Amino acid sequence: MSSRIERTASISRAPVSQRGHVVPVSADPEAIGGTVSVTIDGIEAKVPLGTTILDAARALGLKIPTLCHHPDLEVAGVCRICVVEVEGQRTLQAACAFPITSPIRVQTHTRKVRQARRRILDLMLSKHVGECYTCFRNLNCELQTLAKEYGVDFFRFGHEAARRHQVDDSSYSVRRDMDKCILCRRCVRTCIDLQEVGVLEAVGRSDGTRIATFLDKPLNDVVCINCGQCINRCPTAALGAMDPTDDVWIDINDPKKHVVIQTAPAPRAAIGECFGLPPGTPLTFEMNTAMKTIGFDRVFDTNFTADLTIIEEGTELLLRLHEALVQKKDVALPQFTSCSPGWVKYLEHFYPEMIPNLSTAKSPQQMFGALIKTFYAQKAGIDPASIVACALMPCSAKKYECNRPEMCDSGHKDVDYGLVTRELGQMFHEAGIDLPKMPKGSFDDPFGTATGSGVIFGATGGVMEAAIRTVVELVTGLKIEDVFAHADVLPVRGFDGVRYVELPIPAIGEVPDLLKMNKGLPFSDWKWLEGAVLKVAVCHGTANAKRVVEDIKAGGTFSKCHFIEFMACPGGCLGGGGMPIPTSPEIRAARAKAIYAEDASYEIRKAHENPAVIRLYQEFLTDGPCGEKSHHLLHTHYTPRGKYIA
Amino acid sequence: MLVTERLRLHDDIGAWVAKHGATRAALIPVLQEIQRSYNEISEYAMQEVADRLDIHPVEVYSVVSFYSFLEAKARGRFVIRLCRTVSCDMTGKDRVARQLENDLGIRFGETTRDGNFSLEWANCLGMCDQGPALLINDQVFTSVTPETVHDLIQACRKSFGPLAVQGQKGRTH
Amino acid sequence: MSAVKKGLVTFAAAVPEEGLKAALARPRSEVIAEVTASKLRGRGGAGFPTGVKWNLAAAATAPAKWVVCNADEGEPGTFKDRVILAEVPDLVLEGMTIAAWAIGAARGVLYLRGEYAYLRDSLEKVLARRREKGLLGTGILGSPLSFDVEIRMGSGAYVCGEETALIESLEGHRGEPRNRPPFPVDCGYRSEPTIVNNVETFACAAMVLAKGAEWFRGIGTEVSTGPKLFSVSGDCREPGVWEFPLGITIAGLLAAVGGEGAKAVQVGGASGRCVPASEFGRTLAFEGVPTGGSIIVFGPRRDMLHVAENFLEFFVDESCGQCTPCREGNAKLLEGVRMLREGRCSWAYLQELQKLGEVMQLASKCGLGQSSPNAFLSIVEHFRPEIMGRTAGGNA
């Protein structure tokens, strides 16, 4: 019933009108007065004081329709589809926004209620331009579902055929079609409140109300970070991702093109949802076969570059620590992870002065792109110009990231297309593939097969866990299993918005050969780390990121950290803006479970033990981690953007 | 926007935020000050206010777009708001409206080319017993007739302060 | 007995600070008891018992509480608050100060609608004078009460007259009404207990404390006590602010203001009801036709469909746009009225529009949406022969 498990503090920016009740749900239902009785459709129950009618009804297994309500967001009570009759109340009440504070009797489907809901739907449909069969949300649309449930068989108040708004397709990631908008304002609450990015708001009033950006500018011209969380929470097709599948098909069908795809860990745990399977059904190897079947020439595992990221970013951290602790240089710490392109753009816009803290390591997607068109092309004897590099990602911001002008270190556009989970599911459907029934297939060499450390990148805390497994082993010479049982770094797991962990270095070992490949390394032993306590934090959702960065700027706890993992999306990649719709805390938890189960099933669960990674350094990046070659291909720079809009 | 004007706006907003407090509750008072002094709340002004109050520019835009007396695009020096609600309607607001359009050469919702006059509709001005009523900036005029429209406009043209119109009182209550 | 007269009869006769002195001499529970005993009900239109509201706010435990005077008088046909603020502002501030004492508030806000900006300077002067005289500020009249009032201006939004929208506006947001519960008495301005009362209500409260609940109860009816100001406009000889005891019949009011031949009266402004001549025997009271005081008289030649259209244009302009029934519903009703005017509306569609109006009354988030179809529905109910079967451009 808890709706906001992923928020650290209730510093909501939403106006109270968009926030619903503040009557706290009683902390101790056992206390006298901690519960209240409610009768819904004749069923009597006791619920904690302050529970909403909607939550109480759901706990009783009763269904009340909703549109503006979302489990991740504050209560709005604006769509009015959830109205119910409360005995003694003159008007119908919104079940989502009515806290039960005294015994009440509720009817959820009287004649009055049904008539009201039906007409509210009729009103929404009258301005909802378009037909369901030309809509990408067909059969996965909350408005459509309700129209069916309430037996809408004609447009009572007409149906507008002409468009009133232009589609905004200026962004690389998010596409807005306001003619499909029903003004539930979930996107507003997502953008301002959940993510605290503040791109979308309701503008105008009365029937001229619309959801808009600052001065109605194109999305590409405002501070949108492309996280796509609004897409995942839109009940209709008003928000969607920019879909490159048509172009991908063209390249697949072109015999002169060598089309490869790298697949990130998070989509594997979710693509089953596109085929009616419950969230958290892993289909990693079925997906490999399916992708080959529809015509991809090679299928690679992004886990490879996830492991590579750990080596590069970990080495960078050690170098920064050495500069700070031994050379006493003024170096930017804590080091921030840079795998989440939404987070990177957030920092560029809102805290450009903190850019030095961002790791210069590229995200796994972009590392892979650079290697495909250099290392792989060379090894396979293919002209890089004829390679089309696709990336299957859980993330709408990856579409933007691969289009950043600096992402051409291979001499070509490193990654050509960012595909998201939903789009690959669509491609499979189009090719008549029943994914769950596919035989299992493996990933292609030379990048080898999956590792557990790469897989967990898909969940919040995963990057940190992978980094800890590697850094602890490299520095101490111990086995991580001796420090954390089964190599599970449990303190960094979970869904708390911000987690802070202190990790004493229990011993020091030899500097391993892998690092020694870099001849420029300013240290030859770990003495300077003896007795040190590694302070790390994990943070997901940009609203939480904001609190952490503000704390750092104010010299708080987090400013003493050495390394912080930031993910733009609540839940990390498994909650990404390209993942199947809908999303909820339960769905994300199920996906996380699948990801950690997959990690546990792998033999290799540490980045530095990935044989393909070791081979890459031996054969290609011969001057070692953070060496010159790796700097050229695997590291990048950032653009201070600021939040002022020209 | 000229750099000098931007600087002036920057300083003014700083002073107003200091006066009303750097909190969200100060947003509307600050916007009202900007509107009064600049006849518009420009793109730059909205971002400046957002920055000072630690909110997003789109939130400022959202608020500006909600209230009829706040406007993102430039309005005339004199904003004439004619009441269109039922009592004034019954006393002949349509004829006054037509005369205003004719005398100013603009339609409702427009601003004269010289930037002096904007013509807008208002909902109930609370002068229902003395309609038709209109507001010119903060001053209210009642029992306006098509014949007195010209005098009102002339009074504006010649005005450096509160308007004085023959046979009309710019009422304070 | 309150006079049936034009102008602010009772209020104008008030002795300055009589009510405030009486209140400060008594414990706050007794002050609230007096207001409760007077059976004073909110003068803004909704008619919530003032004593109950004050009692709830007084019972709330919080470090700070607020007294807010709702001077966002936007209801079409209403202008009595403007006259009160112009002629007896001290009485309103006295009422606010009494309320502050009663609920334990230290700060007050007078939310003045933007259209009344010309009243601001004189009100600021009144505030300054009261501060000088020790009627505002620390230790008012030697009592332990500290209270001050600031004026905040509206910016042209009718919906801000709804108390939670008003509070949203004070907090720097769009004037969009909140979900209720919780009510402002528990969680209002800055999430602190807040009472929001109409201008006239505060003035009445001051009178109640000055002259006693019994005096107040002696005016009006058993349920609807006290004198009431009416804003009278439209087709009558004597438009203006009138004072009548609650419980007067519509016919009685019309006779006094010179509107005898009327075919209908709009009671309660755009959000009120259109009462046809056949029902002029009804009383203006909370148990009869409730009203915040707006009376618009329609003479025999008025086109009631035109009236409905004007009201709906008003609501289509002034709905906050937050909830579906009000945002889309008013636009559909207006479209329907225009279809009627052009003679393009079927009987069946008119039924649909009536049903829609009822749904808006039931399912809208706030009072604006819940009351916006009232005028349309009552006009359709009472003037069906007049509005149906029109030929394009012509009247019935």
Brief synopsis:
Chain B has 173 residues and is an alpha+beta fold.
Strand order, main sheet of chain A: write it out.
Answer: 2-1-5-3-4
How many separate structural domains of chain C? 3
**How much strand of chain C?**
5-15%
User: Termini of chain C, distance in Å?
Assistant: 45 Å
CATH architectural arrangement of the largest domain in chain C: 3-Layer(aba) Sandwich
Q: Are there runs of chain A of 5+ residues with pLDDT below 50, and where? A: 1-11
Rg estimate of chain C, integer Å: 21 Å
Based on CA atoms alone, the radius of gyration of chain A comes out at 26 Å
Uncertain spans of chain C: none
Shape of chain C: globular
Describe the structure.
The complex is a heterotrimer of chains A (646), B (173) and C (396). Chain A has 21 helices and 17 strands. Chain A has 646 residues and is an alpha/beta fold. Among the domains of chain A are: 16-109, Roll (Ubiquitin-like (UB roll)), CATH 3.10.20; 121-241, Alpha-Beta Plaits (2-Layer Sandwich); 308-361 and 450-572 and 605-634, Fe-only Hydrogenase (Larger Subunit), Chain L, domain 3 (3-Layer(aba) Sandwich). The model of chain A is unreliable at 1-11 (pLDDT under 50). In chain B, strands 2-1-3-4 form a four-stranded mixed beta sheet, with helices on one face. Chain C is an alpha/beta fold. Chain C folds into three domains: 5-217, Rossmann fold, CATH 3.40.50; 227-298, Ubiquitin-like (UB roll); 304-387, de novo design (two linked rop proteins), CATH 1.20.1440.230. In chain C, α3 packs across α6 (89-103), α12 (304-318) runs antiparallel to α13 and α14 (347-363) packs antiparallel against α16. Chain C contains 17 helices and ten strands. In chain C, a hairpin with a 5-residue loop joins β6 (227-234) and β7 (240-245). The chains are: A alpha/beta (646), B alpha+beta (173), C alpha/beta (396). Chains in contact: A-B, A-C, B-C.
